[in-house]
Design goal:
alpha/beta; about 400 residues; 14 helices; about 15% strand
Length: about 400
């Protein structure tokens, strides 16, 4: 099959499959062996070398989805992030990171980089000038996350990519919130893309995985570190991830539609004080998002008006589940200061603008009317409880 011009959903469904030559099954067989022959074979396969049959096949699919040359898959998103960063940074190097980051990434940088003699700076703003001011002679990497977790801020990918190339700096982006459906940063000048594949690529809240996509040269550099760090994942999980990606396009497009409708409804709601969603015209980065994204994603955050208990609100929800993760087919909600950004200090959260009352909603594929009804009934119950007190 000529894969050069095939569409997104066709890539999701067919590319990177293993043909079942023996029984002619329509899905990839699973190769669970952890021991392969080393004599008389072209490839010496070993799970920790990321080259089992299922691993290799899935990497082709993921690379194609992100319009990259090659990819690697890991046991978690943080395994992908940490391995990639240590592949491009060593003692004496400097990295620039945007201030609004996933808490786990910030915690990795804050706790581990000093131990290894790696210098780092966070941007004061997300515009290109904010990054430009932080460049030093030893700056080797610029790290982005857009849309960001949990405030859905948007960074101008193309402008940062151009700035980095002018200064010989490698760019890395966490594209988890957007997914390949909504954003392809390589086309905008970024060198390396990271995903927590646990989220939209997996999409069913039942696997833990990570992915990195780049040129073959950059992937080889990451592999040299990855084989020592041992962050590979089991082939059963690889097989489940391949299965999940088959529906990635249709899942995310429905989540996009639902999230936009809910964000617009929340924006007009008298009991909601703030809504963070790049698809809203009122979002400060809406015009940037409009240019670099194909859809605005299934993630949004909001704050209840003062006096309404955010914890109690979550307890009153009947359809939307309180959950530590995101991007499943089911809608979930959490308080970032207690979960995704709990490892950061109060001061660090304040710098990012993460208030204790902030709620992050991962919108699923349910009927949007049912989700809106659930939010409304929870608000009414919280208001009733507040009135009684």
């Amino acid at each position: 099959m000529n894969t050069k011009n095939i569409g997104f959903n066709t890539i999701c469904t067919h590319l990177g499959e293993i043909q079942d030559q023996q029984f002619k099954g329509v899905i990839s067989p699973i190769y669970l062996s952890t021991s392969y022959a080393f004599e008389g074979v072209e490839t010496k396969r070993y799970p920790r070398y990321f080259n089992t049959p299922n691993q290799e096949a899935l990497c082709k699919k993921i690379a194609k989805l992100e319009k990259g040359e090659s990819s690697l898959i890991f046991g978690s998103g943080m395994a992908a992030i940490s391995t990639t960063l240590f592949a491009f940074l060593q003692q004496g190097d400097h990295i620039i990171l945007q201030r609004t980051l996933y808490g786990g990434t910030a915690n990795l940088v804050n706790e581990e980089f000093k131990k290894h003699g790696i210098e780092y700076s966070y941007t004061d703003t997300q515009d290109v000038e904010g990054f430009k001011k932080k460049i030093q002679p030893n700056t080797k990497v610029i790290y982005l996350e857009t849309p960001s977790n949990p405030l859905l801020t948007i960074t101008n990918i193309k402008r940062i990519g151009t700035l980095a190339k002018e200064n010989g700096i490698t760019t890395i982006i966490d594209n988890t919130f957007a997914s390949p459906v909504n954003q392809n940063p390589i086309e905008l000048g970024i060198d390396i893309i990271l995903h927590s594949a646990t989220k939209y690529l997996g999409g069913h809240s039942d696997i833990l995985a990570g992915a990195v996509i780049a040129t073959e040269k950059n992937i080889d550099q990451i592999f040299q570190v990855a084989k020592n760090f041992g962050g590979s994942l089991s082939d059963f999980t690889v097989w489940m991830l391949e299965r999940s990606i088959k529906t990635l396009g249709i899942r995310v497009k429905q989540q996009n539609k639902n999230a936009l409708k809910i964000a617009k409804w929340l924006k007009k709601h008298p009991d909601i004080s703030a809504v963070y969603y790049p698809g809203l015209k009122s979002h400060p980065d809406h015009e940037i998002a409009k240019k670099q994204m194909k859809g605005y994603g299934g993630m949004l955050s909001f704050e209840l008006k003062e006096g309404l208990d955010a914890k109690q609100f979550q307890k009153e929800l009947q359809l939307i589940k309180s959950s530590m993760s995101l991007a499943g087919v089911e809608s979930t909600i959490l308080s970032p200061h207690l979960t995704s950004h709990a490892l950061l200090s109060q001061k660090e959260r304040n710098l990012q603008g993460i208030k204790d009352g902030l709620l992050r909603l991962s919108v699923g594929i349910e009927e949007k009317e049912d989700l809106i009804h659930d939010i409304q009934q929870a608000i009414e119950k919280v208001k009733t409880l507040e009135f009684k007190h």
